[in-house]
Amino acid sequence: MSVEGGHAAGAHQRSHPTVRQYLLIGLLLMLITVVELIASYSDIGSLLIPILIVLSAVKFAVVVAYFMHLRFEDPLLTRLFVFGFVLAGAILIALIALFWTDSAISNR
Amino acid sequence: MAEAAHAPSPAAGARHSTTGIDSRKLLMWIFLASECLFFGSLISTYLIFKGDIPFPSPAFITEHMHGGEVTGWFPADRTGPDGTEYAGVLNIPVTSASTFVLLMSSVAMVLAVFGAQNGRPKMMKLWLFATMLLGIVFLGFQVFEFHEFGAEGLNLSTNQFGASFFVLTGFHGAHVTVGVLMLGSLLVGSMRRTGLGPDSGFHVETVGLYWHFVDIVWIVIFTIIYLIPA
Amino acid sequence: MATAAGALAPPAVPAPSVVWSWLTTVDHKRIGTLYGVSGMAFFVLGGIEALMIRGQLAVPNGDVVDAEHFNALFSMHALTMIFLAIMPLGAAFFNWLVPLMIGARDVAFPRLNALSYWFFLAGALMLNASWFLGGAPDTGWFAYPPLTEEPFSTSRAMDFYTVSLLILGVASLIAALNFIVTIINLRAPGMTMLRLPVFVWMTMIVSWLLALSLPVLTVGLVQLYFDRNFTTHFFIPDGGGDPILWQHIFWIFGHPEVYVLILPAMGIVSEVLPTFARKPLFGYAAVVFAGLSIAVLGFAVWSHHMFTTGLGPVPRVVFSATTMTIAVPTGVKIFNWLATLYGGNIRFTTAMYFAVGFIATFTIGGISGVMHASPPIDSQQQDTYFIVAHLHYVLFGGAIMGIFAGVYYWFPKFTGRFLNEGIGKLHFWLFFIGMNLTFFPMHFLGVAGMPRRIYTYDADLGWETWNFVATIGAFVIAAGMLTFLWNFVRSLRAEANAPDNPWDAPTLEWATSSPPPEHDFDVVPVVRARDPLWHDRDNGLAPPEPDPNEHIHLPPPSYYPLLIAIGFALFGIGALSHLAVLALGAVVIVYGVWGWVLEPTGPEPGGAH
Predict the structure, then answer these.
(1) CB–CB of A4 and C604 under 8 A?
(2) Contact C13/C2 with Cβ under 8 angstroms?
(3) Of the candidates A60, A83, C89, C156, which lies 20 to 30 Å from B89 by C-alpha distance?
(4) Which of residues 33-92 of A touch C (CB under 8 A)?
(5) Interatomic CA distance for residues B132 and B129, integer angstroms
């Protein structure tokens, strides 16, 4: 980061959360983590993995939207980041699927 | 990283931006999109090798395992082909604590950004310091965990879990370390007479973006490695 | 300090010496020149490697080089041409043209731009240093394990490979991020996304491809480095690893990389053809969206490099289908170029020769590419000279022909001097005939069963004739390159007499002087149409007058990019030698970043001396 520049800090259109709201969001993240832990220790069978994935996705989205301010930024930034994220997800799911369904790996 | 856009604008000295988005923030977000592919590749390597870890032979267990408890070099508890119960190496309570620490650091970071953007330098410095401290504590947890695993006999060459686990969490730790360095630089910079300059809110926010990204990567890693069982 | 008072006054840059001013430059035009000269030098080096390969294969049982050196030569030929010649030559055009074409005075981050060049140079030198420090990489540019692992590759060659490619990757990533931001954020007034010149669009697409594929290669290289140095077994079957994983990781990067090599040439041709056909590009939007489709599809085809690894029937069908789909947007582009020529008032300059030659040879390469998109055919062609023929039609007949079209087209803009058209046409014909003579027979050799990467062959296999012809062709290409270098030197010593817009071209870079002043434009142009200069010419609009009160701020030179690159190079050398060197590199990097951050660059009072 350079120390110069004429950027007017805080020149955003939509109002940012207040300190109180940030703390509440932090609390929410903690609570979700606790729920995840409880879920992973309890015996809920095949539902466990979907539940964990959904809860983690919620945490991910909340951090990106509020802590990283993406909800209050130009939609272009959201599009750029989501493009990279979705592409990463798609390629890597395809890659994992190639291996998990691939008989070659069990023949090793 | 976040360099000034050099005003190629008709208006003297004004920062030029076609979209109205600051170029440095744009750069950071595209970099983070690129980082998704980086951590995605490491995570998929882990997932590809997950469940592909041979059980240790009984002879090896007698030779290397610690008194009483049979510990394996796989993430979670398992039952071997002969019905023996093997304990996994992952210590979920300890890692949950470090996960809380990292989440707390994100809250602290957001408060530092709030302070910087609302002209409250004391608040900014306090929470920058808190963020950095929590980051260091997280790294401490990681050093402890690596050390424990080493004592159990799990290292880079033990098996595919060891290799992909250490490389994935190691690179995450390296990102945290870089983040701590950046937070430290901001803190030192803010102690100067001129502070962080007129752009302080911006600098803190950009470092914050990086820090939160490192945090969400950990959210994914924590779920995939620690919470989802074998 | 570089705050020039008055638009026309040259910025008062303190320049103790010419060398120092180049080492510390942050001017996109100078960085473009550095990339271009380095890229040409490595193109010659890679060409010499190719001549040695062809010399060895000219006759059966050749003995120009031995088997080990042959392996190193074909590996380094590929690495040099891909990473050290075509990519930097593309980057040279990006650097020179993107700010000029969008009406900006520099890229968004001038110092990062310099940093990416110095990183590139560090990686390039490190890769080639391996020749003298225990042997060059000799496992092909794709470095498939387990050949690249212990105990099959015991020299440091593969460590040079991983470390240099990591450094080159960081260089490309930095440049890619910089160009994306520049194109999104530094456009002149009126330059909407759908008025961007096609070349700028292709730059942006290439940058996205790099930004999203290089991290995957980075992970693979780190894993390979760990396998070789830190006892992991990611790709070693004996330890539970999987060599096929490397192939996936490599080609998830490697296939987008193919488009990184060809899309800049497509962008260049899309600028050259309309200018010399004197009519706008046919189907501008279709060409742009075809480029975007190629990029997105490019991430969904990687396994077609691995059809013979036992993927299973479903993946083979899927990847075969996605690969064939890419032929559609590529075909769209080819037909749009032809339609641009159709009915045009064509001037056959040297640049136009190369552009039209590009269409012909690239199409041949594209068609042979679709052939081995079919798994059964690919199973026959895999690892034969047919593939060598295909990829050289795409990379030489495509990328290199396109790049030389750009060299002849923009040389007056870059230097203020023309390349000689007569010698240029001789150069074209030597290249065109030479490449077809070299690479077309390789189709026959491949079908006749000649495998790639064999260092010699017996006399009675029926491969002698075409191998000999291919070797003759390679030397014809070399003669063409010598012709170009002669033309180049001759032109640089000639009088600078190029006008601003010698070709009557439509894009903004021709609105400023040849060569452009350091601040690019005396007055930032206002764009009113897709082909701005033709629009202004046809509507009788005069260029705007410079504002005498305007203060043009140019970034001051900086040595921190070079310093950080030296630190990064030390870091890399440390990864190959001793931890102490690595630590020293880390210290230099941290020091350099701090200096960089605190260095005043802005126009604010107090921010500069």
Answers:
(1) yes
(2) yes
(3) A60
(4) 76, 84, 87-88, 90-91
(5) 5
